[in-house]
Amino acid sequence: MSRRCELTGIGPMVGHSVSHSNIKTKRRFLPSLKTVKVASESLGQTFSLRISNAALRTLDYKGGLDAFIVKARDEKLSTAAQRIKRQVKAKLAEQQAS
Asked: Could you say which protein family the record assigns here (predicted)?
C-alpha cells in the first residue's frame, strides 16, 4: 500500500531536519492519509479510498465526490479513482440523455 493520496496524488516529500547548530539531516515528510468511505450521489454507492486530510476538506468544499472527481485530471487519480470517474461520467450522461 503506497503512501499516496488516491484523489490528489500527494505523496511523500524529502527535506532536511535542521538542528540548532544548523546540521542538516535528511528526512521524509509523509502525507496525512486516512482510509475513508466516500459516497457517490449519482451511483448510490460508497467507496473506500485512502485520501489525505487536505483532499477530504476539498471534497467537502467542492460538494462531494461526484463534483470533485468529474473535474479531476486522470494523471492525479489512482486506477481505482479513474474507474469511479468513468462510472460517474457514464451515469451523469445517462441521466442527461433521459
From this structure: Belongs to the bacterial ribosomal protein bL28 family.
Render each residue's pLDDT in the chain as its tens digit; 98 residues: 789 999 999 999 999 999 999 999 999 999 999 999 999 999 999 999 999 999 999 999 999 999 999 999 999 999 999 999 999 999 999 999 87
Give the CA distances from residue 7 to residues 51, 73, 94, in Å, rounded to whole numbers and listed in that order: 6, 9, 24
Quick one: fold of 13-97? Ribosomal Protein L24e; Chain: T; (2.30.170)
CA angle 36, 63, 59 (to 5 degrees): 35
Residue where the block lists cell 490528489: 8
Bridge partners for 14 per DSSP: 28
